[in-house]
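Fill-in record for Acyl-coenzyme A thioesterase THEM4.
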Amino acid sequence: MTDGTKSESTVQVSAREETSAKTNIPENTTRMEETYREAMRWPSLPSWASLSNRQQWGEKLHILEWEGGEETDMKQDMETQIDEYRITNGWKGNDLVHSISSPVRILEYRVDYNPEGVGTTLTGLVHFTKNAESHQGYCHGGSMTSIFDDVIGWIGFCATGTCIPWSGFTVQINCQLMKPVKVDSLLLVKCRINKMERRKVFSTVELIDPTEENREGNSHLHAVGDGLVIVNRGVIDGH
């Protein structure tokens, strides 16, 4: 997340948004959820990642560069539609961690806003595919750090209580890789804003496997970290 420019092709997603930006159909429609997942080539999901559970994480971010614009046809190839949208709107290639073919892919983000910024959380569902493999059967450590770079950047874009895409840039990421990730794993990434100073947004992040517990009964952590985003001038009132 190093580009500080703002693209007009993005969607600003408010904390009160309750419908899909593309379809205007409530996202809790089971049929729509299934159609979307199939069209976007999601893997099978574990029970902890069901729609009802994910909705508890917050409002879904709908970003046009990841979803192919406002008028996509779920019956047509979504990857082609996304590519066409990105090229038409000035993008040069695929998103590193949000494209359908990404080796490690964030399937979706959900945000739980705090109007004051501090306390806002951004939770993501992450698929580590076989194309991220390094050691036999395990994913490259860089796949975890790439996810941290992305989520730290995007929570910075959400610091005002509204998502303003590309409204800042990541300047620092600190990562501690604690446990390797097996190929084809589905994990949860959770980031929280814990401090803001003028245009600086400080956050902490965890990469979690909700299906496994340690001796203390807590979910296993694959990695932890923290980071700093600088938002553009004028994004935060008075700064």
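KEY FINDING: Residues 191 and 205 are 4 Å apart (CA to CA).
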